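The following block was generated as part of the benchmark described in Methods. Ligand: iron/sulfur cluster.
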Amino acid sequence: MPPVQPPRTYRVKSFGCQMNVYDGERMAELLAQQGIAPAAEGEAADLVVLNTCHIREKAAEKVYSDIGRLVKDGRRADGSAPMIAVAGCVAQAEGEEIMARAPAVSMVVGPQAYHRLPSMIAEAAEGRRSVDTDMPAETKFDTLPARRKVGPSAFLTVQEGCDKFCTYCVVPYTRGAEISRRFSDLVDEAKKLVDAGAREITLLGQNVNAWRDADGRGLEKLVEELAAIDALARIRYTTSHPNDMTDGLIAAHRDIEKLMPFLHLPVQAGNDRVLRAMNRSHTVDSYLRILDRVRAARPDIALSGDFIVGFPGETNAEFDDTIRLVEQVGYAQCFSFKYSPRPGTPAATMADQIVPEVMDERLQRLQAALNAGQLAFNQASVGKRCQVLVERHGKHAGQWLGKSPWLQSVHFSGDAAIGDLVEVELIEAGANSLAGRLLGGSPRPDRSDRGMAAVQ
Ligand code: SAH
Ligand code: SF4
Ligand code: F3S
């Protein structure tokens, strides 16, 4: 590649899970620290970071079409193509292959190595292409700059990687082994997020409830410590694995008021033979017993999960078991996917891969059952009074959008501002959101210019 002007502006595009969103924010901060500015809305950037996801085939293929589009339509002011960095899980999984397949890419950087971006950018400016998919001993977290201004709801990655090796999943290969960040670092970062405007923090991890510190303290201890931060109103965590759902964490849902009544606990399928073939290491029954314990600790908890339809060998009767489980649990909201064979995973070479038409039909049936459950959950909330954290403006003038404690989207009108925690009565339910009536509120701490935002 010929040498080019070092980039003056950047754009980071993140795909996939919330941990990628967190990583994308951190990369943006790192680039800003290097004196590179975010590109203005609608303007071509000198450097584009595609922070990719490899979880399903479509997600991975998208990267190549995005690169093609950038070369064609993303020209810099001087007519040259932007510098392109591929980061995230496709970078980790395909490394050199991306370099071979996409000559327009200057650098490929895996999810554990992106703190090395600045030196890779310098090399790219000199015309050298580079790949870094190491999982270095020094962690990226130790070398990243401080947080800038954040919205009312912020992410904090506490744990990364996965040792579970479900037979369909790429994450153990793209993110590496489970690591837990240090307790004190997390408390410090949480305080900085709160100082920067966060009123809610969602603790993130591929198996967030597997987080342990060096003294063996579990996630509930971290939640307890964060709950002591005055201006922090809400704590959430995601994604959890059933096998790491400890008594301590379940009790935290009873004891710690700031821990929101919501649990994302993927089950993937409702049949034990399929779960065994997936290497999930829990059964339908052991999963249901965990939910019983969680509900005993926090009766109003909203439950969520992930499902895969059409895992190799799944029969119609086995799929029916999944529908039965969905109807039995009464989930508040869920994600559901068609099984996608991922190269290098054991399931990709299993016999009896399911044909697309069957997959489509199962996904439709599952989603109909999940939507019905979600609507029923929302309808059961009508009449409740709850706090809503205001996150943004709604579609109409004077309208606000925020989240209930149960992670439902709620819209309402009245005197409020982004970052306020307001008291709302839920008055109408749809499948995807609820309408609320504003009762009163507590303005965010830095809005001392106003008293209570109480209006009827
Ligand atoms: N660690 C989390 C989820 C990580 S991936 C857990 O174990 O629950 C997010 C979701 O993507 C998974 O829960 C699963 O439902 C889905 N998924 C992962 N691999 C997939 C594949 N090969 N095909 C389809 N869906 C997949
Ligand atoms: Fe993937 Fe299973 Fe690990 Fe979740 S627990 S990240 S689905 S391997
Ligand atoms: Fe995708 Fe990687 Fe997350 S594969 S779901 S971005 S861990």
